[in-house]
Amino acid sequence: MNRNVSIKLYLSIIATGLMAFCGVLIETAMNVTFPKLMTQFNVDTATVQWLTTGYLLVVSIIIPISGVLKRRFTTMKLFITASIFFIVGLLICSLANRFDILLIGRIIQGVGTGIALPLMFNIILEQAPLDKIGLLMGIGTLVTAIAPALGPSYGGFLIGINWHLIFGILLVIMVIALIMGLASIRQVSKPERVPLDFVSWLMISIFFAGAILAFNNIESSLSTAGIFGLIALVGLIGFIIRSKRITRPIVNLDVFKNKSFNLHVVSFVMFQIMNVGAAFVLPNYLQIVAHTSSLTAGLLLLPGAALGAILAPISGTIYDRLGAGKPIMIGLFFQTIGIILLMVEALSANPIPPLIGYILMMLGTGFGMSTIITNGLAQVPSSQNVDGNAVFNTLQQFAGALGTAIVALVVALAQVSTDYAHTTALGAQHAFLLLLILQVVNISCIMLGLRFGKTTANEAD
């Protein structure tokens, strides 16, 4: 298949991508507002953290049913619904003068993001020509890949003026995205009367809620984390058993019968853990160890984020022409060198190595991450693409929570002496050593995945 991509398709990808971008941007922008919000609302760290935890919980609960929503409703209805939730949530947060009101706004935003994230990639998978899949998946990744690193700079700048503007400015972007989507989104498949199995949804919700709460409690209470972990395990087992007994599960678990798909998924999770882990460690390292301001720390991460985002569609074009192997291997090379540099130079307290190391890591992400998603989905029949996309999007949120919790724990365990700056640097070094070990797992998985599977979208049935 070789046909041109319409302007309307590009606009529909950008419209849904902007919504996903705003959701991810606020997630990381909120991190730098916590000290200010704790003082203003007189709440502690554990309480203010719920602005992120509650949001992630809702996103993780909504995304698994994206396959059912996609089959049951038109793309336009889903887009409008996501836009309404997101705009209402932003409006509430931009006017909030109490912590509980702010939290309600964040939870409402989570519903919008949960619908929007898989919607963008579903549009690409359903409407893009096969020979343009890599390019368009790269563009979709570009829209959201820069958001996590932009967040600290965006939040750090606006918190000095008024933190309400973090939400208010994005209202304008969301209105633009809504207008763009209304003018461009089209329907190519007929909706079906697909039932939503509420028992399965309850089980998967228990799993993600338990898992995220377990990760968040690892540092403060291992026993509490263990209880939530056990609850998560019960939810997961219940979900698997239920899915095998019904004819229309919310996620078709047959996608996991493909060995190459599974290996691509594991590699994607490793990539996400490393990206989120580095994005958590470096701003704290730059402020505590290198003594930069929060705004400067955010700006130092900006070049890497920008380069990584720009490279995503370039990587997609390479995939369309040459297959998955080359862009993924290039990405793994850059990311490995970046992690090693960050680990070796962690004790130097010099802001330049983190700048260079993060650029190298994001170059690796730009080349590798979107290609892993695209090629992973090429391993399963096209009828299972919606389910495969739900798996990738759900695990992106899950891996983000896991990555943050793991590196936060590693850094906290090192911060035991009175020399806070030195022990933070030591904790950062340990965290990057852990990421390097995960990179070895990542390389092993993706090499096996490429060996056992297809290497271009055109090979998919």
From TrEMBL:
GO MF terms listed in the record are:
transmembrane transporter activity
Q: Please give the NCBIfam families that the UniProt record associates with this protein.
A: efflux_EmrB (TIGR00711)
Q: Where is the Major facilitator superfamily (MFS) profile domain?
A: 8-454
| Database matches in PROSITE patterns | MFS (PS50850)
**Membrane protein topology class:** Multi-pass membrane protein
- Source domain of life is Bacteria
**What is this protein identified as?**
Drug resistance MFS transporter, drug:H+ antiporter-2 family
Q: Name one Pfam family in it.
A: MFS_1
State its location(s). Cell membrane
According to its UniProt record, which protein family does this protein belong to?
Belongs to the major facilitator superfamily. EmrB family.
